[in-house]
Amino acid sequence: MEARNFQATQDGHLTDDMKQAYQEDGFLILTGYKSPAECDQLRARMAGLIDAFDPQTVASVFETNAQAHAKDDYFRKSGDSIHFFFEEKAFGEDGKLTKDKHLALNKVGHALHDEDPVFEAFSRDPKMERTATDLGLVNPLLAQSMYIFKPPHIGGEVNCHQDSTFLHTDPLTCTGFWFALEDADDTNGGLYGVPGGHKGPLRRRFHYHGETLAMEELDETPMAPGDRHAPLIAPKGTLVILHGLVPHRSAPNTSDRSRHAYAVHMVDGNATWSADNWLKRSDDNPMRGF
Ligand SMILES: O=C(O)CCC(=O)C(=O)O
């Protein structure tokens, strides 16, 4: 099954055909949304952040025998910071990295868009505001950002999920803006989505139950059989917009090509943010729009 794609407009506005495709499919593929130079600039900035980062500062979080609560705590505190998350088995039993730190990372998140000026400029692009508004977000707020590495050979699968599971508002407004910083396709761990799958219910919610973060099952409707998952082919510079209810996933990267991506998730500030969401911001550093 082929997913349709469109050439992005210069100013970020969506044409009627694009809006219709998003309403029907629950995703929208816009090629050429960012220039190759903008993608390279973001990659270079991330390489610089990694250069400046000492993995030993988080070895106790990621080493093989690390206490589960250490990883959990590092994740909980990442909502308003830049935290580095390593692939499984990146640290050996001796607490040392088993490979070059640039090739051992799974992702960096979750407030690059607020805490780093280069990521902020990429994320708070006026073009993006026009796109978000055309999608129907009245007061778009940038809730979280992630740089996703999917390293060659070891980049793992991301299981089929709906983004509103993680960023819940009433009514549901979570919308993913996923940028291919390198060509991403069905051979190097690219995305798959279920066309029309956003018309189904929210299946799960990941949220605080008191002090505990846990997944709650809401609806047992299956996401969709594998043959309904369409590869979302995304050449470098492509923006893939994902409705918060559309089931999507990514395959493992078994190729020798890397697949860097950057994702910003927005919610509508006019909807009610669920206070038990995993993502916490302090009162003096709230979520902001453009
Ligand atoms: O980049 C990936 O592999 C998965 C990204 C994703 O699922 C998301 O941004 O919601």
TrEMBL record:
InterPro entries, alphabetized: Phytyl_CoA_dOase-like (IPR008775)
Molecular function GO terms recorded: 2-oxoglutarate-dependent dioxygenase activity; iron ion binding
One Pfam family this sequence matches: PhyH
Matches recorded under SUPFAM superfamilies: Clavaminate synthase-like (SSF51197)
UniProt keyword list: Iron, Metal-binding
Protein name, per record: Phytanoyl-CoA hydroxylase
UniProt organism field: Roseibium hamelinense
Lineage: Bacteria, Pseudomonadati, Pseudomonadota, Alphaproteobacteria, Hyphomicrobiales
